[in-house]
From TrEMBL:
Keyword Transmembrane helix: yes
Organism encoding this protein: Streptomyces violarus
Family matches, as Pfam families: Mrr_cat
Protein name: Restriction system protein
Entry keyword annotation includes Transmembrane: yes
Database matches in Gene3D superfamilies: 3.40.1350.10
GO molecular function (one): restriction endodeoxyribonuclease activity
Superkingdom of this protein's organism: Bacteria
Domain Restriction endonuclease type IV Mrr: 115-227
Biological process annotations from GO: DNA restriction-modification system
Keywords for the protein's UniProt record, in alphabetical order: Membrane, Transmembrane, Transmembrane helix
TM segment ranges: 21-40, 52-70
Length: 259
């Protein structure tokens, strides 16, 4: 006799209502509500009997909450400060790695014209021309007590050039007295190899004669403009040409300086 096959319930068969589990859930819920109610009643009774303690607990709770928020803010501020310090350190490292660019005087070509400059700015412009044309150790020494040496430099071929700057108007020419004062100090005091007097005006005839006798290079307005534009010789080149033409140089001129 063949035994009947046992029927296997489907895997997705839904469980029926479980009365025991439901009853246990409601019992636990009732217990939780009871405990919560008793706790609230105890707190209320304590508040009635000792309100000061409740106040203390409330203050402590508020203080703890505020302290927690403050710690959060402090932590954020610390992170921001650390990030700022890190950024500053990176910038400082970049600055140290970047080679320093030496300060350069404004080029004379960039000026609006020599007439618009102050005497001090005119001296700076002449110094800029010297630097542009290869001079080294360029120094603006003009001022009270300069004894005629407004700009001092070393030419590309190693000669010491001393320049006096006269920022005059068109109606004020450089006279022989200006040349004599400069000639009395440029070689003996400042030990110039090449002495130059440059002006925004022109020179009187006696001044040019004295300069020719002493070996001082005179740069008038027209010659200055040619030097600025690069179309004319540098003053130290003019001195070399004059020495070759006359057969004596600035060393001979030193002995011919008149008092």
């Amino acid at each position: 006799m063949t035994a009947p096959a046992r029927r296997t319930p489907p895997a997705n068969r839904r469980h029926g209502f479980d009365l025991r589990s439901t009853a246990l859930f409601f019992v636990l819920l009732a217990g939780f509500v009871t405990v919560l109610g008793l706790t609230a009643r105890m707190v209320a009774d304590a508040a009635q009997r000792r309100p000061a303690w409740v106040f203390v607990l409330v203050v402590l709770g508020v203080a703890g909450f505020v302290g927690l928020r403050r710690r959060v803010h402090v932590a954020r501020a610390a992170r921001r400060a650390a990030a700022a310090l890190d950024e500053a350190a990176r910038e400082a490292a970049d600055e140290l790695e970047t080679p320093a660019i030496p300060r350069q005087r404004p080029a004379a070509e960039a000026t609006a014209g020599y007439d618009a400059l102050t005497p001090e700015e005119f001296e700076e412009s002449i110094a800029a021309l010297c630097e542009r044309d290869g001079c080294s150790a360029v120094d603006v020494a003009g001022g009270a007590g300069d004894l005629g040496a407004d700009v001092v430099a070393v030419t590309p071929d190693g000669h010491r050039v001393v320049i006096q700057c006269k920022h005059y108007g068109d109606a004020h020419s450089v006279g022989s007295q200006d040349l004599q004062r400069f000639g009395g100090t440029c070689f003996t005091v400042h030990e110039a190899d090449i002495a130059v007097l440059v002006t925004t005006s022109d020179f009187t005839t006696p001044a040019l004669e004295y300069a020719d006798q002493c070996g001082i290079v005179c740069v008038d307005r027209e010659t200055l403009q040619a030097w600025t534009d690069g179309t004319g010789p540098r003053p130290w080149e003019s001195a070399a040409l004059a020495g070759e033409a006359t057969g004596w140089g600035t060393a001979d001129a030193e002995t011919q300086v008149q008092p």
